[in-house]
Amino acid sequence: MKPVNPVDLVFLLLERRNQPMHVGGLFLAKPPEDAGPSFVQDLVGHVMGYKVPTPPFNQRLVTRGGFQFWTEDEDFDLESHVYHLALPKPGRIRELLALISKLHSALLDRHKPLWEVYVIEGVEGGRVAVYSKIHHALVDGVSAMRLLERGTTAEPDETIIPVWALPKKQKSKQDQDELELDPVRQLIQQAQGAKKMATSAGKVVSEVANSIRRRNKDKDYVSIFQAPRTIFNQRISGSRRFAAQSWSMDRIRAVGKRHGATLNDIVLSMCSAALRRYLIDIDALPEKPLVTMVPMSLRKDDSEGGNQVAVILADLGTHLDSPLDRLKSIQGSVNNSKERFSRMNQAESMAYTSAIMTAHGANMALGINPAWQAFNLVVSNVPGADKPRYWNGAVIEGIYPVSIVMDGVALNITLTSYAGNLEFGLIGCQRTVPHLQRFLQYLEEGLAELE
């Protein structure tokens, strides 16, 4: 058994019926030209032959003495994790996204390993879709993309090994030593790790104090106290709506080059324009600019488990009519946040992030101050493969992240890079964020106006 580390435990504690805490991914693949009518059926039969999972796909939760542990599931049943579905004709993308919305709304069963995979045939154009979801306590965005990439191939004629059966990576001596520890000693090590984060409290307090002092003095300093109240910042239902679309990275980079901005700056500007237009349409644009939380990976190795992230708060300038003024506001606040983290080590960065998320979550859960939230939404960019990948000969045409929304954060925009494109995946509470698909049009308009 291995104790659940404190950061991963947060995702387990936050989960409720209306707030599933799993992340997902959808990819669309085009079978090879010579594929027969049984291509998908044969492919499902192939992957179902891999019945012995490897970590973390064989791990389930147990509670011992009030503590949560991961332990190997000795009664693992692959048919409880992998499903073969088909869309009714004509299998439009609209129906596919509606299905993903419903599948992503459902909680994972904690009595078994926390992941599921759905192979969906009948997508228009003869394509096949694969949707997978895995609990955020097991992986963060970067590690999830690494697992996805390892579960596909670089060449069409290579045979896939499904992601749940990938051979274990060679562990370091430190990892091996940790595995050999008994659960009590592992808990002691976890406590020592928590103590290390606790020793960072002084730096965290200092930075929070800075946010109070500087929020009215430095226009580029984004405080945890300045996000306005919006329709996105209320309690959510358990229903989700998912939308997805691709944009050319060359096109976005060309816009960035013209305006002296990074690719991420332009992405945030697209989001800013879309949010402004959406909120104006429903007469709900606040006078103050929206603030987005942007996860920043702290992962310095090639590991695939757990969570190692910090957060940047960015001013989206949604109160400004000029797209260039909004871009300038975004650049200033992002650079200011990066400078802030440059003053912290990894433990301090994670402690600062935990302080923000804990305060935000506790406020939403307890309703201490309903008018306050640290940020309005999440925008996350996860790096992916730069060349096409294959799934048993089927070329993957697009990979779209399906992320998390929470009470107080009813909209999440996550994107990943893939084969020259940026693949946007938008997830929102169906009740709180109606007509989510409009954001796709507004993102395009935001890019076009910068061009």
Could you please describe the fold and organization of this structure?
The chain has 451 residues and is α+β, with helices and mostly antiparallel strands. It has 2 domains: 2-173, Chloramphenicol acetyltransferase-like domain (Chloramphenicol Acetyltransferase), CATH 3.30.559.10; 203-387 and 398-450, Chloramphenicol Acetyltransferase (2-Layer Sandwich). It has 12 helices and 15 strands. A 6-stranded mixed beta sheet has the order 5-6-7-2-13-12, sandwiched between helices. A 6-stranded mixed beta sheet has the order 8-15-14-11-9-10, sandwiched between helices. Strand 6 and strand 7 form a beta hairpin. The termini are far apart. Residues 172-176 and 303-307 have low confidence and may be disordered.
